[in-house]
Amino acid sequence: MPKTTNAQLRYFEIDRCLQNKYHRPSNSNHEAHLGCWTLNELAEAVSDALYEKNRRDEGIASRTIRDDIAALRKGIMGKYAPIENIKGVGYRYEDPSFKLTENPLQEDDLNKLKEALGILKQFRGFRYFEDLEVITGNLESKIARTELPIVQVDVCQGAQGLEHISVIRESMKNKTPLELYYRPFDSPEVKTVFHPYLLKEYNNRWFVFGYSNFYKNNGVYALDRIVSIKLKHLESFKEGNPIIIANYFNNIIGVTNKGTPLEDIVFTVREPRRNYIDSKPLHESQRVVYRGKNYTRYCMKLRINNELIAALLSYGPDLFVEKPLLLGQQMGQLTAEMAIIYQNPLS
Question: What is the pLDDT of residues 289-306, one digit of tens each?
Answer without folding.
Answer: 999 999 999 999 999 999
